[in-house]
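A reminder before we start the practical. When you read a complex entry, don't treat the lines as separate problems. The point of joint prediction is that each chain is placed relative to the others, so the output describes one connected object in space. Small molecules and nucleic acid strands, if listed, are placed in the same frame. In the example below there are two entries. Take a minute to note the order of the lines before looking further.
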Amino acid sequence: MIRLEKRPQPSRAWSMATPLVAVIATMIVGGLLFAALGKPPVEAIRTIFWEPLFGEFAFYYRPQLLVKGAPLVLIAIGLSLGFRAGIWNIGAEGQYIMGAIFGAGAGLAFYPSESFLIFPFMVIAGAFGGWIWAMIPAVLKTRFGTNEILVSLMLVYVAEQFLASVSLGLLKNPEGFGFPGSRNLQSWDAAHNAELIAGTGMHWGVVAALIAVIFAYVLLNRHMTGYHIRLTGEAPRAAKFAGVNPTRLVLFCLGTSGALAGLAGLFEVSGPSGQISIDFNVGYGFTAIIVAFLGRLHPVGILLAGGLMALTYIGGDIAQSNLQLPAAAIQVFQGMLLFFLLAFDLLTNFRIAIGKPEVA
Amino acid sequence: MKLTNLLTSAAVALGLAAGAAMADTTKVGFVYVGPVGDGGWTYEHDQGRKAVEAEFGDQVETVYVENVAEGPDAERVMTQMALEGADLIFTTSFGYMDPTINVAKKFPNVKFEHATGYKRADNVSTYSARFYEGRAVQGTIAGHMTESNIVGYIGSYPIPEVIRGINSAYLHAKKVNPDVQFKIVWAFTWFDPAKEADAAKVLIEQGADVILQHTDSTAPQAAAQAAGNVITFGQASDMSEYAPKPRVSSIIDNWAPYYVARTKAVIDGTWESVDTWDGIGAGMVGIGEISDAVPAEVKEAALAIKDAQANGTYHAFTGPINKQDGSAWLAEGETADDGTLAGMNFYVEGIEGDIPQ
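Here is the predicted structure of the whole assembly.
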């Protein structure tokens, strides 16, 4: 008889190993899925994981990993702070959108000035846009006890309506022949978040993501607020006795994650994307939730998980084009990753025992 | 072990042979915004791709990537296709415009074809279809068929393309039925069966017995079928599974002739950057069979409009036409110029409501 037995203490080894085991399990089951679709499984897995890093055109894909991974890491770092404390911001997608709108709007207000102050001002406005959008669920929670999961999620759809509205109205390119979408910031130097070194994919968003990783690490390990976050998550009652102010913690966690998501939106709209358009958001805010958990809510883990997620996106597109794998199969593949992670997570707190339960 | 080695070397040899043969084939890439099975917009582009394969056989190799988000993802997918040796790349969504231009700059020897945009370059052509010609046919049928005099219209996004369609349908419905009224719901999506079904239900509740849609799913057709006495039109593809009723006709995007012609131009080395805007006449806009649910005389009137546009004797926007605010737009007998049509951002006189901003 196979049973699950609760471990007296969560296993550290399993906690570290589960992401790796989950990736391997995804490769195996994903390979079976691809084989069932009549595609060569080994070739498909190799295309997804190997091609972007070491393939013939890796010189192009490696920088793209940074472009794709940076917003994921930036957002996931913010989310992880709240998740550790049991504060669930599910609406990063909305904060990402609002950051882009505020940031691009703040810049475009000065078009066509070439002042060097424009980009820094846009960065501040972008962070503010994300922060203020996250403050809505934060204040509603602390004031009226609403559920931040629902409020933050619903605000994503409100933000999407705002996005459509400004694409068609306020921020519409006056030289765009009536088509929706803002001016392209890539063709306006003062507002362009260009590559810092050409051909490396390194833009300010990547730098910001790396800084966020370091700050989060220091915060969680060396700072009182970080200690409060961890304490609240691990032992809420103890946190109360230790004098943690829950209101302040909610405002801090939601505010920080909102601001970081807003920054991600700003760096995206002023860089790789270039313009505000109706379909500007592509789901980074939601994918970042997966990245946060895949990275064990640990800053360094998130950095690696962001890279891995970016890899499956880029590799997935290559596999589509080269092997004609359907997009849906790639999405199933990515979904498996989270599924297996959560499944194997069980082993952190439980162990599999064979035989009859011991008599206590 | 030996067998594996043998197989490997055989595979390598085959790969080399295939590689050598590939040098002569023309590689054509397609970037799709939706899934190939959407039954509408992307489905029809993929039919065009299949037509290219059928036409040229071993002379071409086609590749596609579906569900590509507009923006940096699209740019990466296009770059990837160009790196992998594509000679011609069709980018099939308006939002791919700036990414297409960016990638085209980096690969001057690769030809690009961008659907529905307005930015061109030496190696970037644009192409689109005059769907408003099809809307004129639909409007004629709608005006005749409606008994409640309320025609529902599911808009996707308030962009010139969609507004043009609404205006064209309205003008032609009004021509045959002066009491007709249009109710317009904006779905803010190109493809979302749930939202489209909701929009259709709202319109039917408001008394509409004809539903026109500028969204790509068959959900409005299903909603109309459930409601009973409501007719609809297929959008982008024929949607003939709902014929003869509720679907009484359709606008079919037929990209195949264009894709075949442009691929041939690349093979022959005669490709040039052009701006193509073809309609019923050139076969880019197809009118799906008008079903028997439509009385013979209505069918005849609709086909007359279709034929007159096909042979160029009639333009869907022929004056006198006023703008919604009552100001004059086209004088008696004057026809709209393409520039105004391309950027159309106003309703014609008689349509109620505002274009969302």
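Discuss with your neighbour: The longest helix of chain A spans residues 58-84. What might explain this?
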